[in-house]
Every structure is written in C-alpha cells, then in structure tokens.
TrEMBL record:
Native source organism of the sequence: Polymorphospora lycopeni
Entries under Gene3D superfamilies matching the protein: MetI-like
Keyword Membrane applies: yes
Subcellular location: Cell membrane
Record protein name field: ABC transporter permease
Main localisation: membrane
Length: 336
C-alpha cells in the first residue's frame, strides 16, 4: 500500500509537469526561424497556396486558439496532423515508437548487464591490470560519438567481415513479417515467424551494439565506484572478518549493495539512450521515433516536434518513477 500511495502521488505530480512541457514546447517551436508551410510547399508556391495550407492546418488562427485546439486534442490522445505528411501524428507515433523502444530496451539491458558484471569484477581487482583495462575501455567508450562508432561497426561487421546485413532497414522484406507492435523481434515471436526473427535479430545487432557501447561507459564507471564504496564499508569488512564464504560476500553483500544505485543510473542512461537513438537510427536507416522526430524538426513540423517532446518527457518521468520504486524495494532504508 505504501508503494501504491507513492505511485499515485507521483502520477498526480505528472500532470503539471507535462502541462508545463506542453506550454513551453508549443511556444518554443513557434519562435524557431523558418516557415513550415513554405518549407513543405517549396519556393515556387503562390501566396494563395500558402494561405490555403495555413488554413488547412489551423495556422491562420490566433496562437491562443491554436493552443486550446492542441490541448483539447491531447486530452483525447490526438496529437494533430503532420504538416509534412498530412497524416495523423498519433498514427505515425504508433508506427515509429515500437522500433525505437525495441532498440533502447535491448541496448540499455545489455549495457546494464555488462556494466554490473565488469564494474564489480573491476572493483574487486582495483589497481590491477584488469581494472586498468576496464577503466581504459570505459574512457574510450565515453569518448566515441555514436555516429562514428556506428559507421565503424558497419565498415567492419558488414563491409569487411560480412557477418551482418546491410544497414538498410529492420528486417528482410521477403520474410513477410506481419507488424503488430512495431518491434520486429517481438512481432516475429508473436507470429511464430522464425525466419523473420533471425533477420530482425541480425539487423538489430549492430545498432544495439553501437548504443550499448556508448551508454555502458558512464554506467561502468558508476557501478565500479559504488562497488568500491561497498568493499571499503564497515559492514562488508565486518562480514568478511566473521568468516563468511566469498560467494556469500559477493552475492549477499557486494552485489546487492551495489545494485541499489543501478535503478537510478538506469533511468539516467535510458534518457541518454533516447537522445542517442536519433543519430543511431539515421546511420542504420532504422526508421524509428528518433529519425521521425529529427525529420519533423528539420521541416519545422510543429505537431511532430510537439508530440516528440511530450512523449520523451513522459518517458523520462515514468522511467524515473519505476527507478524510484525499484530502489525502494532494493533498499528498505529508503522512505517513500
């Protein structure tokens, strides 16, 4: 009940946060330089064509009227109509969000496993060769841009070795995959389409590796620092002095105490991963949410940009809410 009350309070606090995001985004996108209508129609369009387009998308109305119409649509789950495509933004989000979530979830999960295992291993061998190697790896990973790393992996994995498919999509078209969630790997399992499953996994490997390497570096350093703090704590030293077995010390003390900080770190890197997907999706032609949002920003597509920011803000607060709940479960000292 205590956790449920905490979740209820945080969900109520979510309303003013999202309202503030909606207001700021609505105002900021309209002060950006450039006219979205002229960008879409091109330089040869007449004033009559531009006026008709503005009327169609409601851009001829006063700003307060545009905001009230947009807010009313949000209440019903309608993000408006894309200026670029003329389609429903809600429908486009439904198509694009699945591939990006699939990429982010797999990348963050892989990065968490690698960071926890290598971080604890490195802390137990502090100032030795293995520890220095892990720290150098983290430093290099933290210094590499996503797009450069993606291009290198494509060059090595596809062009040189030929182990992975070309970066031209998410699944081979001849597998006849039926889309359900938009996440191709999940859809392949749901439809028992195993050739599509293999194709989707092969296409997913390099983008996941790119994103995981980038976000595992800060995670690894934080996990190592947390594990070192536990190793030097009085509780751990006392437990070792009482003659507990090394396996008990590792699992019952070191790993559990180190994992207490992992939910908060995971929430932070989840946000980093969402931002990094823009470049990763562009490099791998992933056709996901990040690439869609970037295209909307380049074309000054107001409804697309507004929907992208609101969804990212919603993802942030929900992920941090989950992290706080998991943190409270792992650490009974936390009061919520």
């Amino acid at each position: 009940m205590r956790i449920l009350r905490f979740v209820g309070r945080r969900l109520l606090q979510l309303i003013p946060v999202l309202l503030g995001v909606v207001v700021l985004t609505f105002l900021l996108v309209r002060v950006l330089p450039g006219d979205p209508i002229r960008t879409i129609l091109g330089p040869n369009a007449t004033e009559e064509d531009a006026a008709a387009a503005r009327e169609r998308f409601g851009l001829d109305q006063p700003m307060w009227k545009q905001f009230l119409d947009y807010l009313g649509g949000l209440v019903t789950g309608d993000f408006g109509t894309s200026i670029q495509s003329g389609g429903s933004v809600t429908a486009e989000v439904a198509v694009r969000i699945g591939p990006t979530l699939e990429l982010v979830v797999f990348s963050v999960s892989l990065a968490l496993v690698v960071a926890v295992v290598l971080g604890i291993w490195s802390a137990r061998r502090a100032d030795r060769v293995g520890d220095h190697s892990i720290r150098i790896f983290a430093l290099i990973g933290n210094s590499m841009p996503e797009f450069w790393l993606g291009l290198v992996l494509i060059l090595v994995g596809y062009s040189v070795l030929g182990w992975f498919p070309a970066p031209s999509g998410r699944v081979d078209p001849d597998t006849n995959l039926t889309p359900i969630t938009g996440a191709d790997l999940v859809d392949a399992v749901l439809t028992a389409n195993w050739p599509a499953f293999g194709s989707a996994a092969a296409h997913l490997a390099l983008p996941v590796a790119t994103l995981a390497i980038v976000i595992v570096a800060p995670l690894l350093r934080s996990v190592r620092a947390s594990a070192l703090e536990v190793l030097h704590s009085e509780a751990y030293v006392a437990a070792g002095a009482h003659g507990l077995r090394p396996r008990t010390l590792l699992r019952g003390y070191l790993t559990r105490a180190t994992m207490v900080r992992v939910p908060s770190l995971a929430a932070l890197v989840f946000g980093t991963a969402i931002g990094s997907t823009v470049l990763v999706e562009y490099v791998y032609s992933w056709q996901g949410f990040g690439q869609w949002a970037l295209r909307g920003l380049l074309y000054r597509d107001y409804p697309v940009v507004q929907a992208s920011v609101v969804i990212i803000a919603l993802a942030y607060v929900l992920v941090f809410l989950i992290a706080d709940v998991v943190h409270a479960i792992l650490d009974p000292r936390v009061k919520i």
